[in-house]
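Handout, section 4.2: multi-component inputs.
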Amino acid sequence: MEQQTITLVQESWAKVLPISATAGTLFYTNLFEADPSLKALFKGDMAQQAAKLMQMISAAVGKLNDLGSLVPVLQQLGQRHAGYGVVAAHYDTVGASLLKTLEQGLGPAFTPETQQAWASVYGLIASVMNPETTA
Ligand code: HEM
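Output:
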């Protein structure tokens, strides 16, 4: 992964962090709008779920320069997701919802380069979590 990609993702994520709770809620609104059937997979409190998602993305974004320690964490996360009933196609829906959320949250700061960088980082995360993904 190119350093420029990592920098774009880390700098844009730093702008999302102050609005983390809002962004997390917005993400699930976008996700369930894209595929209402996914609601059934989530059993717990959605505000807490949003916080866990944001924390995990933060951890992943922070470790993009240290893939050796990130990859095993993502592999285990992916195995747990298989147990939640998550299949490869869901990763596309989640990726699209994440990019939409970033666009809404960042506005003009979500430049085409930043969008491209996120698409490639999300594609990497998804493919490590679930090698069947096409993202
Ligand atoms: C970047 C990719 C993703 C990240 C970082 C992520 C992060 C997380 C985290 C941190 C948890 C808390 C439980 C745990 O650690 O095992 C979780 C649970 C969950 N995630 Fe994800 N996730 C991702 C992709 C997805 C996708 C593609 C789906 C499909 C809809 C999904 C659905 C779920 C479900 C159903 C749960 C369990 C909810 C429950 O037990 O009520 N996640 N996710």
